[in-house]
Amino acid sequence: AFTRIVTGDCSDVYAQDSDNCADGCGSCFNGEGRSSTPDFDVVMCPSDNSSPGYYCDPEGGVFACMDWTFGSNKLKEQEQKFNSRTGQNVWFGVGTFGTSADAMQGLGACYRLVVRETACYDRMAGRELEREIIAQSINTGFDVSNIQFDLQIGNGGTGAFNNCAGDDWSMFPGAFEESIWGAEYGGCDYRDSSQGSPSCDDLPPLPQEPGMMNKDGDNLVDLCKWSFDMGVRGAGGTGGSNPTIVDM
What is the DSSP letter of 60? Predict the structure, then answer.
């Protein structure tokens, strides 16, 4: 059974007026937010926010949830439960997607992805990944339309909004440098330091506040390497071509 754990209205999320709060907050606040179990929380922006864009001040403590990262122990636990219910082995994930076919651009929708290694001469020629992926769209943007899904993986790149490192309020300690974190879009190029740099081995393993990640048994280095191992980024441990979605 699902239990509703979110209460309030737009004024609890946004301190400033926003056009996104028209029509009963349909675009900015999920009034029916709920959690399936007590160990999954719904996070809202701090009420004293003043930032445009994602509307959350970095100092408010709202970041991408690391336990939603592809290969996290939390997601693996849910994958096993799904297998017990259905007999199907899939990977779970979240990320960014966009579609004009839906008024909400696909936000909140789940998609089943069939993915192959990229072969430019024939999209069906590449090796199919070990499992299909069931992923939920939790963000959208003009640059992820059509059949493209930006999966949240361990250091897949910060994108345009970097809360990962480089400031005293950032999630992870240390400087934000390309020699550590790799490209803004794509992250590090190599799985292991023996292959080249930047690699997963260059990353800080734990956030500045490590308690919850330690508790769940995850760390950023392992999550990064898992994404290489499962083929959702460059094959062979190097950041080559992204794999190709052949059915969605």
Answer: G
